[in-house]
Design a protein that fits this description.
The chain has 1 helix and 10 strands. By secondary structure, the chain is mostly beta strands. The strands form 3 sheets. Strands 6-5-9-10 form a 4-stranded antiparallel sheet, with no helix packed on it. It has a 3-stranded antiparallel sheet with strand order 1-4-7, with no helix packed on it. A 3-stranded antiparallel sheet has the order 2-3-8, with no helix packed on it. It starts with a helix and ends in a 7-residue tail after the last strand.
């Protein structure tokens, strides 16, 4: 009736179908496993450098600020079987007359293992300068937010944000 090859083909594709259905069902578990970090604290210090960058030979003209901040966050509860990488970054948000929301990434870090998901850093200098091309940073209120993206092995990308600190920029420039 059926040859050996027909039966082998049916068995192989039945096994592949079962494995595929199990993989799809397993990927749906990601939606029920959304957790928050155990602790999350970010404290920004007053700017160590706040200048008006207006050099005649450069096309960039802007307010520029440099900060130090303390970060203490435990992201280990976010780690599960489907997490490939956590992309952690700090943003500075502020409003200007022409733009009600300005978001600038000032620091980032990539976590590749669960054991590296506890970040306890003191006096970290921002990697990327806070630039405002409209010279609107003086006296402005800046809100610092700790953000992260959970990059999965498969499935959707999840993001989360925690507002952790606010400060008012100085009214005068300082070197």
């Amino acid at each position: 009736m059926h040859t050996f090859y027909h039966r082998l083909n049916a068995l192989l594709f039945h096994g592949v179908t079962v494995i595929f259905c199990c993989a799809v069902a397993t990927n749906f578990t990601v939606f029920w496993d959304i957790t928050e970090p155990a602790s999350c604290k970010l404290t920004a210090h007053p700017p160590i450098k706040f200048i008006r960058f207006d050099h005649p030979k450069h096309t960039v003209k802007a307010d520029m600020a440099q900060f130090r901040f303390d970060i203490d966050v435990d992201l280990q509860p976010l780690w599960n079987w489907n997490v490939k990488v956590l992309f952690v970054f700090v943003t500075a948000e502020y409003a200007t007359p022409s733009h009600p929301l300005n978001q600038v990434t000032i620091w980032d870090h990539i976590v590749t293992e669960k054991s590296m998901a506890v970040l306890n850093k003191k006096g970290v200098l921002n990697k990327y300068q806070l630039f405002d091309h409209g010279f609107n940073l003086r006296g402005n209120n800046i809100t610092f937010k700790l953000n992260w993206y959970t990059v999965p092995v498969s499935g959707p990308l999840f993001s989360s944000t925690h507002t952790t600190h606010s400060m008012t920029m100085p009214v005068t420039y300082m070197n």
